[in-house]
């Protein structure tokens, strides 16, 4: 059974814990992190904190960044 996305009510994409929208946001986060890491030598957690704090960050991206920070805080 395909449970819903942990961040919204939508159906998860096969092989992912996220729906289409949050999965796209996760991919965008990963791509942006690579760019930021090269330019600023930023750690993953610090990057997520910056993304959440930025007014320019979209809702889907902030949802995923919050979720990833919570998972990291819980150890996985």
Number of domains: 1
Structural class: mainly alpha
State Rg.
13 Å
Shape: globular
Mean pLDDT: 92
Question: Which ranges are low-confidence, i.e. pLDDT below 50, for 5 or more consecutive residues?
Answer: none
Instruction: Report on the biggest sheet.
Output: none
Count of extended strands:
0
End-to-end separation: 23 Å
Order of helices and strands: HHH
**Proportion of beta-strand residues:** under 5%
Question: What is the helix tally?
Answer: 3
Helix content: 55-70%
Write up this protein:
The chain is mainly α and 76 residues long. The protein has one domain (20-73). It has helices at 20-40, 44-53, 59-73. The mean pLDDT is 92.
List the helices and strands and how they pair.
Layout (H helix, E strand, L loop, with lengths): L19 H21 L3 H10 L5 H15 L3
Helix pairs in contact: 1-3, 2-3
TL;DR?
With 76 residues, the chain is mainly alpha-helical. The protein has helices at residues 20-40, 44-53, 59-73.
What key attributes describe this structure?
76 residues, 3 helices, mainly alpha, 0% strand, single chain
């Amino acid at each position: 059974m395909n449970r819903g996305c942990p961040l919204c009510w939508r159906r998860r994409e096969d092989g992912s814990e996220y729906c289409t929208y949050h999965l796209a946001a996760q991919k965008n986060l990963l791509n942006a992190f690579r760019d930021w890491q090269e330019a600023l030598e930023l750690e993953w957690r610090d990057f997520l904190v910056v993304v959440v704090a930025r007014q320019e960050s979209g809702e889907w991206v902030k949802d995923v960044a919050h979720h990833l920070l919570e998972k990291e805080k819980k150890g996985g």
